[in-house]
Amino acid sequence: MLTTNMAVALSLTPTDQSDPRWLTDPPVTETVHIRADDLATAQLARARLRAAHNDREHRTDAPSVVLDVAVHIAHDARTARTELADARVQAPRTVCYIGTPSGLAGLIADIEAAHVADGVTIVPLLDTHRAELECSLLDEVLPMLHTRAAHCESTYRRTA
């Protein structure tokens, strides 16, 4: 089991620009949402945001950087890729993950370990599979991460 303090949110739709629904406790500091073509670009953006904050000698904590990750998962990676290809969805310009729940949990843990971001917003690539994605996040991905597990049930109610 991985252990992480990552904040995890779910975008309400693939194109929704409003505040996401937090599946864990949200960050306690100001939140800056970013999109990046890859993890290295996101890591650089986070470092720059934090450096700019520190250069201004703010009295508050540096902002939490939350990376949008476009996601489609299935019980196996081949199925996930096939479903996405069949839907002919154009991926947004941000980090994408297509695979399994355990692979997504690993990616989220890696994002934290490499200081790429302080949290992630999961953006569903297929709105028709949004409910399935939400269930997988709650029932599989978050327990694998063991992230704020004690708070998940008390602060979030499943809508699916």
Protein architecture, described:
With 160 residues, the chain is an alpha/beta fold. 40% of the residues lie in helices and 19% in strands. It contains five helices and six strands. Strands 1, 2, 3, 4, 5 and 6 form a six-stranded mixed β-sheet that branches. Helix 3 crosses helix 4 (130-145). The protein is elongated, with a radius of gyration of 15 Å.
Strand runs, count: 6
Major beta-sheet overview: 6 strands, mixed
Which structural class is indicated by helix and strand composition?
alpha/beta
**Distance between termini?**
26 Å
- Per DSSP, the total helix count is 5
The general outline is elongated
Low-confidence stretches: 148-160
Tell me the Rg in angstroms. Answer: 15 Å
Oligomerization status of the protein chains: single chain
Q: What is the H-and-E element order?
A: EEEHEHEHEHH
Summary?
The chain is an alpha/beta fold.
Q: Features of this protein?
A:
160 residues; alpha/beta; six-stranded mixed β-sheet; 6 strands; 19% strand; disordered C terminus
Topology:
Blueprint: E1 7-10, E2 21-22, E3 31-34, H1 39-55, E4 64-73, H2 77-87, E5 95-99, H3 101-113, E6 119-124, H4 130-145, H5 149-155
Parallel strand pairs: 1-6, 3-4, 4-5, 4-6
Antiparallel strand pairs: 1-2
